[in-house]
Amino acid sequence: MLNNVEIKYICTFWGCEHLSAKQFLSNVVENGYDGVEINFPDDEHFIAEFNGELECIRNTVNPNFIFIAQQVLPNKKETVNEYIDRITQRLQFLVNCKPNYINSHTGKDFFEFSDNCKLLEQCEEIEKKTGIPIWHEIHRGRFSFHLKTLLQYLEIYPNLKLIADFSHFCVVSESDLHDQYDLLSKIYPNIKHIHARIGFEQSPQVNNPFAPEWKTYLEQYLNWWKEIIAIQKNKKSAICTITPEFGPFPYMAQEPFTKKPLSNQWEINLQMKNYLQQNL
Predict the structure, then answer these.
(1) Residue of 20, 158, 200, 243 with fewest CB within 10 Å of its CB?
(2) Under the GO molecular function aspect, what terms does this record hold (predicted)?
């Protein structure tokens, strides 16, 4: 832990969709996480159970247990205005769930620059009205898909809050980003949350980040995260949140024919949490 910055480790719901809300949250607490990041399923019973269990955890185990709600809309053929209506409705639903933060997968990579700006301003308006911070994830397919073009948005919106998932930049640019470090470091001050997943030039996720063949990538990502946290320290931020975010198939490679995952997703995320606790 760095002075003045308390790092909070968040557990992703991704890959745990087979569990009930109670089972998932119980596993999260038992394994020492400080909160959860979740894209709610379309299931009223699940959401009601989640809210009840969340309240119980905060009343009995951890009053500061963090809840990050994800806004991830499925792709749909629609106009820009129809998309704006759809994302607005989803964000309104999520703010009513009273999360600490919202992770928004915002915009589309093929929208005009001005259309994505409209979306960002709509999100900002919802944030101002509700007081719930909205963070925009760096992700393929969204407005934030490409490092160079993302900087153009930051020129207009210098206070934009971002989630660092640099694996997507690696894939989009087919680069380990060593040739773009000057650009990458420009967005560090806007990073509010980190997705700790190791990707490479051809995929947003390696098969196991602790395998020796990925050692240089693991060290590179760790250095990026250290630099981001150092900036949070200089800003005297109270906390920094990190979600180890290795995912199931199709992010997780699997054997042909048997479809057996090459690694255990849950265990990798736990191992990443432990690794970062020892190295940050």
Answers:
(1) 158
(2) isomerase activity
Sole residue written with tokens 């995952």: 261
Is the bond into 250 cis (omega within 30 degrees of 0)? yes
Q: What is the pLDDT of residues 130-150, one digit of tens each?
A: 999 999 999 999 999 999 999
Distance CA 200, CA 255 (A): 20
Q: In whole angstroms, what is the distance from residue 150 CA to residue 156 CA?
A: 10
The whole-angstrom distance between residue 116's C-alpha and the CA centroid of its chain comes to 20
